[in-house]
Design goal:
The complex is a heterodimer of chains A (about 475) and B (about 280). Chain A is α/β, with parallel strands linked by helices. Chain A folds into 2 domains: about 190 residues, Rossmann fold (3-Layer(aba) Sandwich), CATH 3.40.50.300; about 140 residues, 434 Repressor (Amino-terminal Domain) (Orthogonal Bundle). Chain A has 16 helices and 13 strands. In chain A, strand 7, helix 5 and strand 8 form a beta-alpha-beta unit. The longest helix of chain A is centred in the last third of the chain and has 19 residues. Helix content of chain B is about 75%, strand content about 0%. In chain B, helix 5 packs parallel to helix 8, helix 7 packs across helix 8 and helix 10 runs antiparallel to helix 12. The radius of gyration of chain B is 25 Å and the shape is globular. The chains are: A alpha/beta (about 475), B mainly alpha (about 280). Chains A and B meet through strand 6 and helix 2 of A and helix 9 and helix 10 of B.
Chain lengths: ~475, ~280
């Protein structure tokens, strides 16, 4: 919890260019041994925050105090893991780490440096690749070297600038687990900026939510009360995971824009509101209630509201769905058909329930649990029955999905193209606008089917769904 | 897109081109050049060709080949200042080029570093560089001769001037375009200025600097021939001029061939060095 004097303290920091204020009067702290994530959209100034912490950028006013001393520039005590690994390509992996160590320990002998560098590389599982140059390493291995280089310095604080964003989903996951382990082992104070919600949930003790820029501010602090140790495989099974994830997602999708330049009433920049969507772990309470739509406080099934018979009810004899995922998948399937029949677009449904098209799509396709009022809106516009409306509110149990495809929505796209022969151009551009590209921040392979008529394309998607980059 | 070409076929075609060229040359050289009878004493005095009023016949490939063999057999003889082996001439030229080039590198690399690291210096010096760079190095020759008063050193100075600019500009460019993130790494590691320059900037800019050096050595080798024609004394350029005065066209053909080959070797040598310092991401 935040005591009076945090280990790292950002105080009244303002950064502005002529005619463009990145942020002003920013206050937050990081406690010793704590892992803090800063989450926000691109362009909100989160990299600037990190650069100021690193000493690479200077604030126009205000200051940063680390361990009781105000920082005046870059320091070995604040090691940075850069977004694009930033290894020197003319040095081997070992030489890269040894170079960093030679700055930390100027009077070590060459042999000492190399030995320590090798030990650091072995810690990240790269002992065998120590003699290779970065061009001979994969993206994940390069970033591992970057991590080894930073940790070898035994810094007071580890700063990470979206360190995994350039990696593929599998590698990213493995590295997240690795960083989680290493940081825990060393009880390392760490600050990371990211736009990957799951990454923040996996790693952070506290998550700072930053609004869009210019003139952005930290809207609230999300206390991550999920128990440690966490690992990616079981993260979504932890009680409280879904409300936590939904809360952050919802912030990124709607409130990050809505709150730009106009903070919530009662918001105090020096005592940021703290929320615990995953439930209280200690004697925690919600200082400020976040504005609606508020996510479910607990992953329980929301009772269905009063029935509203729709205008067109496509009543087909329903097979009994085996699991909640099947039910949601089946419903998504049906919604697609109704939608096509009625000539609706996601944007139309989204307008009805005042949500973004991507978000709406995710709700309808069984990716997310809907709020009752949203489920109602969707049911009304599409003419769904009561049971189906309730299904929309159910929380999908993502762990039960077979691999691949891991995600119902991705499965749906895959199926839409393969089964219905929808053209991918229509599907992606007309249905979803650019949002779908933003929604899928992962690998998507479009493959033309040679023997079909028209431009039918097989869409293969791997990775997770719903990231918040807008292109 | 180029398909992979077999070395064999390319080699054969190149040989065919060479044969075709030699045949054309032979044919062209055979035409014209009949002989008339003149007073043998007059002919002995002014030379057979001049005496008949005709031109010196252009040497045939065979004649050039024979002369080449003669020169290659004994490239390093010295029979007085005006008759030295072709190997010695090439060695003189190489010596001048090397001296001028090394001096230019010693000046250009440190200055390029400064210009590349300081946008202010870059802006201040750029007009001078842009004006001086396109000047033919030979235009400096009279000034050099006047001030230095030594033709041998003047030739080296001309080489120095022409080799300077590409190295200077490339070094400045290479240093200025070192990735921001590598510099940031150096800054967060609190590496000192010298350490950063030596361990980060120099290796990062080395490929660009080497490219500049490669351009420089090419230009220097082009210029040395002309410079030596002016300065005289020794060197392959002087030798060409001397053979022109002797009307020994076969020697000139051989000199051209030799200049080309040495230029190729110089370029290859620097190319090999460039590969040593090259890095890829």
């Amino acid at each position: 919890m935040s005591d009076l004097h945090p280990y790292v303290s950002v105080e009244a920091v303002t950064r502005a260019y002529p005619g463009h204020t990145v942020f002003q009067d920013l206050w937050f702290g990081v406690n010793r041994g704590e892992f803090v994530c800063l989450v926000g959209h691109s362009g909100c100034g989160k990299t600037t925050v990190l650069n100021i912490l690193a000493g690479l950028d200077k604030p126009d006013s205000g200051g940063v105090i680390v361990d009781g001393v105000e920082i005046s520039g870059p320091s070995l005590d604040r090691a940075v893991i850069f977004q694009g690994h930033a290894l020197m390509p003319w040095m081997t992996a070992e030489a890269n780490v040894a170079f960093a160590l030679s700055c930390r320990h100027p009077n070590w002998s060459k042999a000492q440096l190399n030995e320590a560098a090798r030990a650091a590389l072995e810690k990240v599982g790269l002992g065998a690749a120590a003699g290779r140059k970065p061009s001979m390493l994969s993206g994940g291995m390069k970033q591992r070297v970057g991590i080894a280089r930073a940790l070898a310095l035994a810094p007071k604080m580890l700063l990470m600038d979206e360190p995994f964003s350039a990696l593929d989903a599998l590698t990213r996951g493995a590295l997240q687990d690795e960083v989680s382990r290493l940081v825990q082992e060393a009880n390392q104070t760490a600050f990371m900026i990211t736009h990957d919600v799951d990454e923040a949930i996996l790693l952070a003790d506290r998550i700072l939510l930053m609004t869009n820029g210019p003139d952005s501010h930290i809207a609230e602090v999300v206390q991550n009360t999920l128990p440690r140790p966490r690992d990616r495989a079981n993260l979504h099974k932890l009680p409280g995971y879904h409300p936590l994830r939904d809360h952050i997602l919802e912030f990124l999708l709607t409130r990050s824009t809505a709150l730009r330049g106009k903070p919530m009433p009662g918001w105090d920049r020096r005592a940021l509101p703290v929320v615990r969507p995953a439930g209280p772990s200690a004697a925690g309470k919600r200082e400020h209630a976040p504005p609606p739509p508020e996510p479910d406080p607990a992953p329980t099934i929301t009772p269905p509201p009063a029935p509203t018979p729709g205008p067109i009810a496509i009543a087909k004899p329903k097979r009994k769905a085996q699991t909640m995922n099947d039910a949601k998948t089946e419903l998504g399937h049906k919604i697609l058909k109704i939608k096509k029949k009625k000539g609706l677009k996601w944007a139309d449904i989204a307008a009805r329930i005042t949500m973004s098209p991507v978000w709406t799509c995710a709700l309808c396709m069984g990716q997310m649990s809907a709020e009752p009022q949203h489920a109602r809106g969707i049911a009304e516009i599409l003419g769904l029955d009561e049971e189906e409306e309730a299904t929309l509110c159910e929380i999908p149990y993502r762990g039960a999905q077979p691999m691949p495809p891991t995600d119902p929505l991705i499965y749906r796209f895959y199926e839409m193209v393969l089964v219905y022969g929808t053209t991918w151009k229509d599907m992606i551009h007309e249905e979803f606008g650019d949002g779908i590209m933003s929604a899928i921040d992962y690998d998507m392979v479009l493959e033309r089917l040679p023997d079909q008529k028209g431009d039918r394309v097989k869409v293969t998607m791997t990775g997770k769904f719903l990231s918040y980059k807008r292109y | 897109m180029h398909k992979a070409v077999s070395t064999w076929r390319a080699g054969l075609l190149a040989l065919a081109f060479l044969a075709g060229f030699l045949a054309l040359w032979e044919a062209a050289a055979t035409r014209g050049g009949g002989t008339a009878t003149v007073d043998p004493e007059y002919a002995a005095l002014v030379g057979q060709a001049a005496a008949t009023g005709g031109q010196t016949p252009f040497p045939r490939p065979g004649a050039v080949g024979a002369r080449l063999w003669e020169l290659v057999k004994d490239p390093f003889y010295v029979r007085g200042p005006n008759d030295q082996g072709v190997g010695i001439q090439v060695a003189y030229s190489l010596l001048r080029v090397t001296a001028g080039f090394v001096l230019a590198a010693l000046v250009a690399v440190p200055f390029g570093f400064l210009i590349g690291m300081s946008p202010l210096l870059n802006a201040a010096l750029n007009p001078f560089i842009q004006v001086l760079r396109p000047v033919s190095p030979l235009a400096w020759m009279p000034l050099a001769l006047y001030t230095i008063k030594d033709s041998a050193i003047s030739a080296i100075f001309v080489i120095f001037i022409c080799a300077l600019w590409p190295m200077l500009l490339n070094t400045a460019f290479g240093v200025a375009s070192v990735r921001r993130e590598w510099l940031n790494v150096a800054r967060t590691l609190e590496a000192g200025t010298l350490k950063t320059a030596w361990r980060v900037i120099l290796p990062a800019a080395a490929p660009t600097i080497l490219t500049g050096m490669r351009i420089s050595i090419g230009i220097a080798w082009l210029v040395i021939v002309a410079a030596e024609m002016l300065v005289g004394g020794t060197g392959i350029g002087y030798w060409v001029w001397n053979q022109w005065n002797n009307l020994s066209l076969a020697d000139i053909v051989i000199a051209i061939l030799l200049i080309g080959l040495v230029g190729l070797l110089l370029d290859r040598a620097l190319g090999a060095v460039a590969r040593l310092v090259a890095w890829q991401e």
